[in-house]
Amino acid sequence: MASADQSIDESLYSRQIYVLGRAAMEKMSLSNVLIVGLKGLGVEIAKNVILAGVKSVTVHDPAPVQITDLSSQFFLHDADLGQPRDKVTCPRLAELNAYVPVSVHVGPLDEAALSKFQVVVVTDMPIDQQLAINDITHKHNIKFIAADTRGLFGVAFNDFGKDFEVIDQTGEEPLQGMVAAVSKEADGTVATLEEQRHGLEDGDYVTFTEIQGMTELNSAPPRPVKVTGPYTFKIGDTSAFGAYTTGGLFKQVKMPKVLQFRSLRESLADPEFLVSDFAKFDRPAQLHLGFRALDAFRAKRGELPRPRDATDAALILETAKSINASSASPIEMDEKLLREVSFQARGDLPPMSAVIGGLVAQEVLKACSGKFMPIVQYFYFDSLESLPTNLETSEAAFAPRGSRYDNQIAVFGAEFHGKIANARQFLVGAGAIGCEMLKNWAMMGLGTGPEGSIHITDMDTIEKSNLNRQFLFRPWDVTKLKSACAAAAVEKMNPAAKGKITAFADRVGPDTEHIFNEEFWGRLTGVTNALDNVDARKYVDRRCVFFCKPLLESGTLGTKGNTQVVVPHLTESYSSSNDPPEKSIPICTLKNFPNAIEHTIQWARDLFEGLFKQPAENVNLYLREANYIESLLKQGGNQKETIDNILAFLVTAKPLSFDECIVWARLKFEEHFNNTIQQLLYNFPKDATTSTGQAFWSGPKRAPTAISFDVDNELHLNFVMAAANLHAYNYGLKGETDRELFRRVASNVIVPEFTPKQGVKIAVQESEAAQQGQSLDENELEATIKALPAPSAFAGLRLSPAEFEKDDDTNFHIDFVTAASNLRATNYAIENADRSKTKFIAGRIIPAIATTTALVTGLVCLELYKIIDGGRKIDDFKNGFVNLALPFFGFSEPIAAPKFKYHESEWTLWDCFTVPGNPTLQGLLDHFKTKHELEITMLSCGATVLYSFFMGAKKREERINLTIPEILLQITKKPVADHVQSLVLEVLVNDRTGEDVRCRTSVSSSSDSCASLLAFLLRHHFIVMGARE
């Protein structure tokens, strides 16, 4: 995206387009950005901005590289010491995105130089220099951002000039819905259908279409909304309009908002803050004072305060008092906090660079595009809770050692840095979050000590679309393993990591427990998930609970991000709570009554499976398996449709040439967009009424119109082209893209005239749809089976099912879904969707951008410091939620692990019983009875029941004196695998009163009702772990 006239490379920016939108990215492609200062924070900002794709990035930092720069500047190496930071960093930044030229600015930052840029970012710069630059940028309406980090403290400041227009404050899709009524009065009320809440807020604007009766609303400009209820809102005076009769849609309109920014000089004395943590509501004003005092100290002394130096801290306090006294609005100073600001002033921590760098980079994109709400105007952030609980007190413990980690030692001390170096972490996933996490870990020195290690696994290979967010990878890495490439990349960033990182290419799951075995888990000090799969996350969570390992969870969705801390014996686990299930579309809506583009896209996606995947798979099963038909008839579902498709694909629809594929596609067009609609309108004419006298086609039901094929209509031809090529793919025929060929062949297809049939049942309710799926005409089915040719007649024939792949623009998959969906939408007068939106919905694409990923991993690593420290209280930890679009930051204490009781004992999901030895079943029963006064009534391992109180006497006698592995061998006929050291057993027990002991109020990752989980160590002992309902 080097210039405005150059099209956006969707294969690279595919996930980001769904965050920012094409219009915003086109504006970004016109923006030249200057970034001043290339320590850890500056390079983090530059990295994220370059990945996002602006017109150009220019960097400026001629200062020589120092050893302490290596603490957080991941593009500097030992060999760069003494060379200009910008000169050595520039070519490494340029590798991130071939579409973004990166250059070095040489010379003064005067008016002539700054006027070349649309956005100027300064980091690690004294305030007097910031003021000089901002005076110029504010005068010329150039967007200005200043940012800095000092230990566990960070700041960002925005000045986007006068009349800065925000075109979309949230980035959320505009809300829309169906109108049920509009009152005619001085303050008209709109009532929406009570299928779903309208979701509007006071001050939103809406427009209307398809209103009947009160037609004036259809052409009216956007009207402001006042919400009166979940299904009603007011829109102002409607008294002069016609009377509403029926129908109509409302749609939210994103209205631009114009902001007026004050200059840095004005804001410095009278700051406006965005609160980063509502538990620290007074913190921004304190930190504003502290950062000003640091700047004054540096201006006077030529350096920042020394780590843990009481004399320097006292001078900072005096300076802060002086600044505060001269302020128009003095505050009550927090002297302890301001001393800490002084103590940490020389700190430079990778997680803080990631947090502030991700945030500021998103502000740069807002400045370029006007997309999302910018920070107005100061933002302060801190993570003081990350300091060790037993922090060393001597200055010597924090003094520089001539090490790349000196700036981390300046904050945490040498002893705690040793803990970081000797940590043993397991990173599951090497995608976007995984890359950022590894970068932070390498800079922190995590796992580089004599006892430290990092294990990383990811079975995926690198694709081009990964390069936009997964910054450790380069174009020449495409098709290589993510885990191996990521490990090699961070070893270059910190050579001390070489030999300390073990890369796997294995999925973490039950099938790899021989690789990630108990010995492996036992060595770890913690686990970090970087996964995009809920099932995989839950599996890792279960293993962490089993082995009592802390787990750090995080995820992103566009500009939104979240973090979760799971700490043994303190918090609930990841699986303890679940997101609500996705709302499914009713079958009747999909089949006959769509009213939104999402419905038609899902219908088209299902049609793809029904035309190009399932029939080919069923044909192959029929040809390969001798008893396939018999097996099919024993199953549920629509066997008639399956057998009809087999017959069609082997006989009636089997093409011998590509022209026949075109004919087939043309007939499919007629079937789905004309004939089916005619039949529906025959059953339910447009003037049909219900038994209560209401119009049938009202409310969410939109009356359709059949489409007549037009060879000159591009949408019609797109469907035929995509369908014909996919049908040809099923049979291994060569495809075609010559549109004239399609026009010629499609024009000559003889289409049978369609006459609607009587007696055809069309489901209106979900219950009717379910009954139709179960009904079967045995005679028709038998006739179809008899018509099937024998598999032997097709020796060697195998069809190629089309596995839906959204990211290949040459395979016609998205082309088919787009065309089919838009034709269906045309049938029902629903606004069509472009290919990009269709791909997003049909492909279930998760929008992603590097800025959010960087910030979220920074937050995770700030929690990792606490995990490494150990011995923390639950209120020391923070789960986080951020939305950079708003921007919004929210933090909360993790939810404590629910506590349960049996008898006088209290337990959580983290607790366990231990039974020495390798007892028999009788021994286990006796142990629980005598030691815990618990009577085991049922015992199982997975789906295998080992014991129950109601089992037969003979079976009980056979098992009672056997060990658990022996019982399993007897039942399953399979010995326990050699690598398995423990078995998870589920048990139901009665307490001393004879009552079931059950979890009472917990939320579980499974639906089993069980009192406990037993883990049986074959060589050692039983462990009984608390289970959850």
Structural overview:
By secondary structure, the chain is an alpha/beta fold. The chain is 37% helix and 16% strand. The chain contains 32 helices and 33 strands. An eight-stranded mixed beta sheet has the order 3-2-1-4-5-6-17-16, with helices on both faces. Strand 22 and strand 23 form a beta hairpin. The protein starts with 9 loop residues before the first helix and ends with a strand. Mean pLDDT is 92; it is low at 998-1029.
What is the mean predicted local confidence, pLDDT? 92
| Count of alpha and pi helical runs | 32
Q: C-alpha Rg, in Å?
A: 33 Å
Structural class: alpha/beta
C-alpha geometry:
globular
- Assembly category: single chain
Helix content: 25-40%
Distance between the termini: 52 Å
SSE blueprint and pairings:
Blueprint: H1 10-20, H2 22-28, E1 32-36, H3 40-52, E2 56-60, H4 85-94, E3 102-104, H5 111-114, E4 119-123, H6 127-139, E5 143-150, E6 153-159, E7 164-166, E8 176-182, E9 189-192, E10 205-209, E11 223-224, E12 226-229, E13 232-234, E14 249-253, E15 257-259, H7 264-269, E16 273-274, H8 283-301, H9 310-325, H10 335-343, H11 350-369, E17 378-382, H12 406-412, H13 414-421, E18 424-428, H14 432-444, E19 453-457, H15 482-493, E20 501-504, H16 518-523, E21 526-529, H17 534-547, E22 551-557, E23 560-566, H18 587-591, H19 597-624, H20 628-634, H21 639-652, H22 658-683, H23 714-730, H24 739-747, H25 766-774, H26 778-787, H27 813-827, H28 835-842, H29 850-869, E24 879-883, E25 888-892, E26 900-902, E27 905-907, E28 912-916, H30 921-932, E29 935-941, E30 944-948, H31 953-959, H32 964-972, E31 982-990, E32 1012-1017, E33 1021-1026
Parallel strand pairs: 1-2, 1-4, 2-3, 4-5, 16-17, 18-19, 18-21, 19-20, 21-22
Antiparallel strand pairs: 5-6, 6-17, 7-15, 8-9, 8-14, 9-13, 10-11, 10-14, 12-13, 22-23, 23-24, 24-25, 26-27, 28-33, 29-30, 29-31, 31-32, 32-33
